[in-house]
Amino acid sequence: SKQTTEQYSYIRNCNNNKTSTFSTNGIIPVVDLTKPEAKNLIVKACEEFGFFKVINHGVPMEAISKLESEAINFFSLPYNQKEKAGPPNPFGYGNKQIGLNGDVGWVEYLLLKNNQDYNSMRLSSVFGQNPEKFRCVLNDYMSAVRKMGCEILEMMAEGLNIEEKNVFSKLLKDKESDSIFRLNHYPPCPEMALDKKNDENMVGFGEHTDPQIISLLRSNNTSGLQICLRDKSWISVPPDYSSFFINVGDSLQVMTNGRFRSVRHRVLANGYDSRLSMIYFGGPPLSEKIAPLPCLMKGKEESLYKEFTWFEYKKSAYASRLADNRLGHFERI
Ligand code: GA4
């Protein structure tokens, strides 16, 4: 079938300057959300990788392509136009600089807030012609993706035999949910095509884990995304424009007391093609206490983490470097 057909991605690996061929569709779990076994596969994938791909996800292709073309239009604007929507403090347009502590990547992006008032922000200057249309297209996409995310989180709860099915999804559904949306554009990196450089400048987005509960990613058909396995090796994720890639965030790792893994991932720059990705980061309300669910604790099992609120975690995350182990601060020794 289509899903099991081998897909190859040719990526120049920036660390060892070797061109490697990967076929990883056999490793990365693929979950068909319409199948009854989905909930068990999701749990297994979250334990083993903290990462999986979903098909039959229910997000209309129309909502995806409409937002994709808005994103292409935006990133095609001249730099001085896009710059008007920046800097990303923390929302808005950003170029090469990631976060506030010196991280850089071969990427430009737009960081947006859930329920944002686009008219009142700098973005209206960029979507000047028709900010209303952008807002509608974005809202349609975000609602459909949030809905899929909540379904996945409910399957997760069922797969974990948790009685309260919406124990995770209610955090994303909450009016106060601190979710974020990100559009990333990785332009082709000419120096890579010419094979001039092979240092870390060639990284699109450096390795990191996501702080939130769950991240829902969709990209065009350009490779670049890699995930880190338990044995610390990196594998390339073959792109698939019609599927979503889901990853476990730090908060979900804590809520499952380490049973689910917050996956390290990165994006390598590409010499020839533009990569465009859109990611919904599902986060809890700022005041939410992030702690292992008592119903998941077996016998005398103790929490691996100190108690903290999402606000406290976020504050400490924004003071960190991208590659830092952010949960380290909150581990019980
Ligand atoms: C990683 C996940 C999301 O993209 C993000 C990122 C945020 C940013 O780009 O502003 C951070 C990064 C992310 C984690 C550590 C801090 C904050 C950059 C950075 C160095 C929007 C998020 O929530 O955390």
Automatic annotation (TrEMBL):
Highest rank taxon of the organism: Eukaryota
Pfam family, one: DIOX_N
Keyword line: Dioxygenase, Iron, Metal-binding, Oxidoreductase
One MF term in the entry's GO annotations: metal ion binding
Domain Fe2OG dioxygenase: residue ranges: 176-284
Listed cofactors: Fe cation
Pathway the protein takes part in: Hormone biosynthesis; Plant hormone biosynthesis; gibberellin biosynthesis
Reaction catalyzed: gibberellin A1 + 2-oxoglutarate + O2 = gibberellin A8 + succinate + CO2
Similarity comment text for this entry: Belongs to the iron/ascorbate-dependent oxidoreductase family. GA2OX subfamily.
Name of the protein this chain belongs to: gibberellin 2beta-dioxygenase
Originating organism: Crotalaria pallida
